[in-house]
Design a protein that fits this description.
Elements (H helix, E strand, L loop, with lengths): L1 H30 L1 H4 L13 H11 L4 E6 L8 E7 L2 E7 L6 E5 L5 H11 L3 H29 L6 H36 L13 H11 L4 E8 L3 E8 L2 E8 L5 E6 L1 H12 L5 H27 L6
Antiparallel strand pairs: 1-2, 1-5, 2-3, 3-4, 5-6, 6-7, 7-8
Amino acid sequence: MRRLAARAHLWGGLLLGPVVLVMGLSGAALVFRPELDALPTVTPSPPHALDAIVAAARITEPGGEVHALRIPPRADQPYRVEIRHGTRQVNVVVNPVTLRVLDSRAPERSVLDAVHALHAGFHAGRPGALAVGVAGVALVLESLAGLGLYRQRLLRRGHGARRRSRGLHRVIGGASLAIGLVLGVSGVALALAGVRSPPPPASGGLARLDGLASAARVAVPGSMLVALTAVADARAQAELRTPDGMTAVALDRQTGAVLDVGTATNGAWDLVRRLHYGDFAGWLSRVAWVLAGLALPALTITGYLAATRPRASS
């Protein structure tokens, strides 16, 4: 049984090797996405009305419909307005104090968006997300199998380069096992979330955003507006941050009437996403997550070397 488990672990690692290499390197880059994709800061000051900010963004994209407005958590960060021309989306970054457009780009032109699409689904949409989920499950099983083999062979002696490769492989695997399991399980959850059927597209855009925001704040006293998004059935969804978490308010886009108040469904997924990318304990967790991500390619290389090098004669 030990020999069979070792063979399964070997061939599982060889087959997963290219996938692990791509996932580890792309994931390590995405951990520092906030720094790599940082936008210019703005002078903290009372912002203009939301309708004025959206109007400034639409000047650069005439004919487009406003799909969403996203408000940052800090006063020195710009606002982002998502404008759609049919199926094409453009993200316009606006200084809410001066109404100056700071940046305007389509997501497909962003290098980091391309890296994220590679990491989340191999640029293959829902089938790619499913493949990432299957690979994540296989990686978790491979890690658990490696842990069992490591415990069985901890005191086993060997010689030469093969012994050194196996020793290095076990050290890297043991050191990164806990974080690797967290990365694997959370990555599987995010991948399976990407397989779900997307919501129906919203027809029409947002208008009279200040009225919608005011109605949402009245429905959830003491909250802070995070985003306004156009959804299907002529509705808008306001996401608000409260001391207890995220709250979603469904609004009628035409009248501004409050239709429903509930827990934001993306709040839990945001926690899973932050856990997957190490965004919960500052630089300490992020550096640890990067090292764990880089350990995945290292495990593939050392495992391959241990498997292919000839046994030393005693």
